[in-house]
């Protein structure tokens, strides 16, 4: 009887061992409070793209969350706490990049009932409208710098994109200011504007900035890739293959979040 018990116990351990083994993971660096990109509840489009890639790999998604301040890459990716950042602008320092998987641009956001129909930062109406822009640390974002070149300063208000993390989704403060009429129009990164407009029930209108070449070398359109540690060639190539295979599904995710897509080399997003 004892021998039979030991045999059954051994068989049970062998059967359960694969279930107890840790699953392989796609280790993602992300912001915990930054919709429409990512949050701790995994509601952002970068969360959904990570889940799509992990499913292809037969892996789980494991997050290292940190606010995307200037030291984000140093504290996460380059500290080996995670292996991939799902969304980085092409040309970002401190990492290697995959092929880009979408492109977008800065946009105007205004209350639909105001019928502003803005498209250019040189529009003379911007000299009297109350304008809101996002501030990124101590660096000026392209819209803020371009407005400064036009001499449009006194009627521009800055909203920190990384604000009080005790409140939900700090980037939303600027869009809330448009809705409450604290500002007349916001100039924001396209995915932010598109997402909040989609969730406004038609109360907000979004339009891409045009006529931006006059502000060169300032850039208003960016291609977005995934970032890995420098020299991590195998991971970058694996992600490139996944991006190529899942491009239609990635595009559907982006469109479902209202992301205004610009043309990307090798693909046309309508």
Major sheet, described briefly? 10 strands, mixed
First-last Cα distance: 72 Å
Query: Stretches where pLDDT falls below 50 for ≥5 residues?
Result: 1-22
Helix content: 25-40%
Strand content: 15-25%
- Radius of gyration (CA) equals 22 Å
Count of runs of 4 or more consecutive helical residues? 8
SSE class: alpha/beta
- Global morphology: globular
Tags for this model:
single chain; 270 residues; alpha/beta; ten-stranded mixed beta sheet; two-stranded antiparallel ribbon; 8 helices; 12 strands; globular; disordered N terminus
How would you sum up this structure, described in words?
- The protein is of the alpha/beta class and 270 residues long.
- The protein contains 8 helices and 12 strands.
- The chain has helices at residues 2-20, 45-57, 72-75, 142-149, 172-179, 190-198, 233-245, 247-256; strands at residues 25-30, 33-34, 38-39, 60-65, 84-89, 96-97, 102-111, 131-135, 156-160, 185-189, 204-208, 221-228.
- The strands form 2 sheets. Strands 1, 4, 5, 6, 7, 8, 9, 10, 11 and 12 form a 10-stranded mixed beta sheet that branches. A two-stranded antiparallel sheet has the order 2-3.
- The radius of gyration is 22 Å and the shape is globular.
- The termini are far apart.
- The model is unreliable at 1-22 (pLDDT under 50).
């Amino acid at each position: 009887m004892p021998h039979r018990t030991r045999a059954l116990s051994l068989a049970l351990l062998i059967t359960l061992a694969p279930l107890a083994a840790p699953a392989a993971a796609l280790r993602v660096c992300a912001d915990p409070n930054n919709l429409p990109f990512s949050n701790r509840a995994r509601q952002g489009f970068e969360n959904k793209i990570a889940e799509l890639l992990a499913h292809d790999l037969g892996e789980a998604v494991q997050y290292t969350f940190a606010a995307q301040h200037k030291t984000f890459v140093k504290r996460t990716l380059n500290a080996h706490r995670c292996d991939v950042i799902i969304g980085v602008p092409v040309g970002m320092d401190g990492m290697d990049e995959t092929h880009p998987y979408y492109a977008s641009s800065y946009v105007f956001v205004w209350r639909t009932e105001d019928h502003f129909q803005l498209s250019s930062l040189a529009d003379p109406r911007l000299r009297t409208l109350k304008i809101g822009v996002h501030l990124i640390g101590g660096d000026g974002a392209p819209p803020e710098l371009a407005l400064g070149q036009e001499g449009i300063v006194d009627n521009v208000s800055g909203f920190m994109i990384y604000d009080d993390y005790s409140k939900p989704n700090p980037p939303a403060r600027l869009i809330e200011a448009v809705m409450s009429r604290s500002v007349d129009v916001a100039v924001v990164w396209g995915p932010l504007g598109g997402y909040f407009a989609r969730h406004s029930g038609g109360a907000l209108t979004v339009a891409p900035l045009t006529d931006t070449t006059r502000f060169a070398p300032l850039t208003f359109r960016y291609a977005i890739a995934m970032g890995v540690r420098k020299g991590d060639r195998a991971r970058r190539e694996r992600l490139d293959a996944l991006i190529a295979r899942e491009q239609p599904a990635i595009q559907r995710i982006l469109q479902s979040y209202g992301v205004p897509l610009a043309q990307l080399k090798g693909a046309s997003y309508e």
